[in-house]
Design a protein that fits this description.
- Two copies of one chain form a homodimer.
- Chain A has about 350 residues and is α/β, with parallel strands linked by helices.
- Chain A has two domains: about 15-145, translation initiation factor eif-2b, domain 1 (Four Helix Bundle (Hemerythrin (Met), subunit A)), CATH 1.20.120; about 155-350, Translation initiation factor eif-2b, domain 2 (Rossmann fold), CATH 3.40.50.
- Chain A has helices spanning about 40-50, 55-75, 80-95, 100-115, 120-150, 175-185, 205-215, 225-230, 260-265, 345-350, and strands at about 15, 20-25, 35-40, 160-165, 190-195, 220, 240, 245, 250-255, 270-275, 280, 305, 305-310, 315, 320-325, 330-335, 335-340.
- In chain A, helix 2 (about 55-75) packs antiparallel against helix 5 (about 120-150).
- Strand 6 (about 220) of chain A pairs parallel with strand 14 (about 315) of chain B.
Chain lengths: ~350, ~350
């Protein structure tokens, strides 16, 4: 294995260009690298719903930015109309996707800025725009801190399986699960990534693979049915994934297929790590079975993009997430530290730090 | 649930038209329904390698027919040249794909006809052609007997998960795993099929879904990462799959992804059935880890058909099969009967029947 050359934070998943929010269009990567411009909360809600932007931390950041965009647009309104506009924006953003709790976190954070002190709408709008910039910067800082904590769990030479994309593209930068990988490599460890393709949206084949190539990190692509076989042959040393929501007892909602990987890792005594910021923890939900699971369009399963390969006349199921029980999680990696064998007590203790 | 209307054996996967063997081109189903014509062992070997025809029993039948085609082509040669031609044909067919043992079975069966009695090549060729016809007819009979045995294991109302395609398209007709389903429905049971799409070749999304629609059997398509989630929600009552090779101890080689489904079924106490003719049993192999696993082209994983969605610069793994240990198999269903909790002793006893 040659010494790795890692380019750090190669992409700006979300960026402000003046008072316009730009996001990489993740539906068309890696064939095309283009930015979509958002000028309102509705633009952002549409982008979240259509998966221009995806990944729990990125969705949280986008929602915060969507609130700021709407505030700037509404800055010349009366205080009452401004408040109504912000209420509508929040509703629109909150209903765009149901599973990632970061979305609610991003909206709530901007509402706190609004309520911090009474001010004219244009003053509040400026404050919200500044806060949205801070949300993006903070997300990268959080991911770097998380990466430093998690990097210690990975060993030199590890072949690390990941599912979906919990990388720089799923956040404002660096990434959660792949942020831990980046940090471990920056610390001198040689790692290889095995990326599950993650049907139906192919976040692994398109986004994780692209991010790893861009960063010069060796990556091997497999289909979602192959990880168990590789584990049985001793070809995977660790699993690391992100999360869309973690319940108070440590149950993890993540991209559909994660649960099967976790069960197989457990069978083969391979550590299964979940990396996410504490903004992904939903301490109000007792357990994973209370997490709403989004069911998406049948057309995602019957083909890909413009191509359809399944016949007419069938039914389709398309749950976008599944629940991995806490008992299968070796450790939860957050910016506040690592929680081994997460459970209710340990997560409560983490949140107090 | 409405009363099912099942059309029996809707397709002829392999058929003789005079002295030409025709096979449905399974690479282009369901978008196109076309037959490919084979006139030599090389034509058949190419069709097997390129997956025009796939499925262990169908490959076994095709190999037998390939030997017959070559015999007919070589009928006017000297005995020595005929024997050499048949030796070359056997070698060509045997190396077309490594995992399914039925391929060797089909070739060996035709070699037995050759060695049965000394005769002029044209006489032997006629006998081999007759035997090839019999192999196809026998495969359907075997599947119907297997279906009758296995049908008793499925309950009225069951939601039955299958992986890959072990249907009429994987055999000369009726099918193995889906043959059991067909037989259970013919016996009056109402079943729903849940089909895993089976990346990378999409046998589930294309072939199983198509076969079920053609037969009027309700089918729900999912991606390969979804079955664990459905099991955890109590939405799957039984799993039934085919096999490409079964070792003497009951370990099962089947389409990549089967092992993960078996592990999840075990975790959720859902019966996991394997249906295959005894020609799929390889009593010469002690255990599954001795079964050769074919590694196919990277291009199957980096996209589908003409479409490529993964970036350049990545590595790819593409094992076509995996091994499910016997301990995860609730029962093996064959034409000689059902073996519950298969192991070495029980399989040896089955083969003596």
């Amino acid at each position: 294995m040659t010494s790795p050359k890692v380019r750090v934070d190669p992409v700006e998943t979300l960026r402000w260009v003046g008072e316009v929010l730009e996001m990489i269009d993740q539906r068309v990567l890696p064939a095309q690298f283009v930015y979509v411009q958002c000028r309102s909360a509705k633009d952002v809600a549409d982008a979240i719903r259509n998966m221009v932007v995806r990944g729990a931390p990125a969705i949280g950041c986008a929602a915060a930015c969507g609130m700021a965009l709407e505030a700037v647009r509404s800055a010349s309104l009366s205080r009452e109309d401004f408040n109504n506009a912000m209420k509508s924006a929040a509703d629109l953003l909150l209903e765009s996707r149901p599973t990632a709790v970061n979305l609610a976190w991003g909206v709530a954070r901007m509402q706190q800025v609004m309520m911090r002190r009474p001010a004219a709408p244009d003053v509040t709008a400026r404050e919200m725009l500044a806060e949205a910039h801070e949300v993006l910067a903070e997300d990268v800082r959080v991911n770097r801190t998380m990466g430093a904590h998690g990097a210690k769990l990975l060993q030199d030479g590890d072949r690390v399986l990941t599912h979906c994309n919990a990388g720089a593209l799923a956040a404002a930068g660096h990434g959660t699960a792949l942020g831990v990988v980046r940090s471990a490599i920056e610390a001198g460890k040689r790692l290889q990534i095995i990326a599950g393709e993650t049907r139906p949206f192919l976040q692994g084949a398109r986004l994780t693979a692209w991010e790893m190539v861009e960063s010069g990190i060796p990556v091997t692509l497999i289909t979602d049915g192959m990880s168990g076989h590789l584990m049985s042959r001793g070809e995977i040393d660790a699993v690391i994934v992100g999360a869309d929501r973690v319940a108070a007892n440590g149950d993890v909602a993540n991209k559909i297929g994660t649960y099967m990987v976790a069960v197989l890792a457990n069978r083969h005594s391979i550590p299964f790590y979940v990396a996410c910021p504490t903004s992904t923890l939903d301490m109000a939900l007792a357990s994973g079975d209370l997490i709403p699971i989004e069911e998406r369009h049948a057309s995602e399963v019957t083909g890909y993009g413009e191509m359809r390969w399944a016949p007419e006349g069938i039914s389709v199921r398309n749950p976008a997430f599944d629940i991995t029980p806490a008992s299968l999680v070796t450790a939860l990696i957050t910016e506040k530290g690592v929680v081994h064998a997460p459970n209710r007590e340990r997560l409560a203790e983490l949140m107090k730090r």
